[in-house]
C-alpha cells in the first residue's frame, strides 16, 4: 500500500458501465478521449458490458477493455483497481456500495472519482480514508 503508482495496464476504468450513468460517462470518455487513452469498462456481467460497447458503436469494442468486477467482492475490486490509474465509480447508492470501492482504490494506490451527492458518504469517506495515500474529498 502507498508509494508511487506503478505503470498500469489502463489509464481509467468506468465502474458500473452498464448502468445509466456509467454508460453516459463511458460514452463521453470515448467521445473526448485522445488517441492512445487506455479505457476499461467494468461491471458484473461481461455480456452486458459488451452489449453497451456494441450500442455505443464505432470502434469502442476494440479500444475498450472489459473488466468483470463485483462491488460485493473485495478481491475483484482490488484486481480492478490494480489494473488502472483511475476508477470512475458509477455504482451506487454510495452509502451502500461506495466505501468498498474507495477502500480497494486506497489499498492499490489508485485514483478514485465518483459523482456522489450523498453528504454522509462523503464525510464518512473523508474520516475513514483521509490522509491515506493523499486522499482528499473535495
Automatic annotation (TrEMBL):
Chain ranges of the Saccharopine dehydrogenase NADP binding domain: 13-117
PANTHER family, per database record: SACCHAROPINE DEHYDROGENASE-LIKE OXIDOREDUCTASE (PTHR12286)
Entry GO terms, CC: lipid droplet; mitochondrion; plasma membrane
Pfam families, sorted: Sacchrp_dh_NADP
Protein name: Saccharopine dehydrogenase NADP binding domain-containing protein
Protein family per UniProt: Belongs to the saccharopine dehydrogenase family.
InterPro entries: NAD(P)-bd_dom_sf (IPR036291), Saccharopine_DH-like_oxidrdct (IPR051276), Sacchrp_dh_NADP-bd (IPR005097)
GO terms for biological process, alphabetical: glycolipid biosynthetic process
Coiled coil: none
